[in-house]
Amino acid sequence: EVQLVQSGGGLVKPGGSLRLSCAASGFNFNIYSMNWVRQPPGKGLEWISSISTTSRYIYYTDSVKGRFTVSRDNAKNSLYLQMTSLEVDDTAVYYCARLLVGATVDAWGQGTVVTVSS
Amino acid sequence: QSALTQPASLSGSLGQSITVSCAGTPRDVGAYDYVSWYQQHPGKVPKLIIYDVSKRPSGVSDRFSGSKFGITASLTISGLQAEDEADYYCSSYTSSYTQVFGGGTKVTVL
Fold first, then answer.
1. Which residues of chain B make contact with A35, given a CB cutoff of 8 A?
2. What's the pLDDT tens digit per position in B82-94?
3. What Cα–Cα distance (Å) separates residue A37 from each residue in A97, B11, B15, B61, B86?
4. In the Cβ-directed half-sphere of A102, how many Cα atoms lie within 13 Å?
5. Nearest to A96 by CA among A60, A61, A47
6. Exposure check for chain B: N or C terminus, fewer CB within 10 A?
7. Interface touch A105/B91, C-beta < 8 Å
8. Among all residues of chain A, which has the CA nearest to that of B42?
């Protein structure tokens, strides 16, 4: 069974940092690109970052460029999102997700809540 | 990186059909046959229901179908059932090698 188990969310003050983790199991993690997607409270889904299988290709949405860093450790079957200079507007449920060709997401983590508030 | 455009809400009676539209641009929906649709019930994780414009993952009801014409994709739900009441999001691959979602459509079953 494909599983993506997330950890690392929480409450942080504006300007603070958090690191999200996503542990994959039940599939060959090495051959899938991965995504981070977030959903602010009461709002829609927003793609924020993608990383290719070997980390050669990495992309970010404009609003997080320079503040967020995506990475992966294929030996540990894990995906990470390092978030710095956090802003109130970064408050959301963050999902890690498995990508198929053409940016189709066919598996999602359970979501982790990030709240940025003073 | 503007979101794809979806109607905020739609409603239909039990057994009816409804169609959710998803308008993009020539740089996303219009450029590739890589449109996907996701269903999300309140408090739940999104679920893939359509990919590559019109393909259904295993286990998804054939009451869900997808299509695309130009820069607009559509999701049709036939024979509406109570459990179809949910939020629906379209998504597309883009010419910048990224992904973009629609704003979401809340479907209400009357």
1. 99
2. 999 999 999 999 9
3. 7, 27, 33, 25, 19
4. 18
5. A47
6. C
7. yes
8. A42
How far is the alpha carbon of B79 from chain A, nearest alpha carbon, in Å? Answer: 25
State both tokens at A37: 């997607």
Least Cα distance to B44 among B83, B18, B13 occurs for B83
Would you state the structure tokens that stand for residue B58, as one six-digit string? 């295993």
Q: In A66-103, which positions are buried (b, 16+ CB within 10 angstroms) versus exposed (e)? A: eebbbebeeeebbbbbebeebeeebbbbbbbbbbbebb
Give the tens place of pLDDT for each residue, A41-68.
999 999 999 999 999 999 999 999 999 9
Amino acid at A23: A
* Biggest distance spanned by C-alpha atoms of chain B: 40
DSSP line for B37-57 = EEEE-TTS--EEEEBTTTB--
Sign of CA dihedral B42, A92, A27, B91: positive
> What's residue A102's pLDDT?
85
Average pLDDT in the B51-69 region?
Answer: 97
User: B93 and A47: CB-CB below 8 Å?
Assistant: no
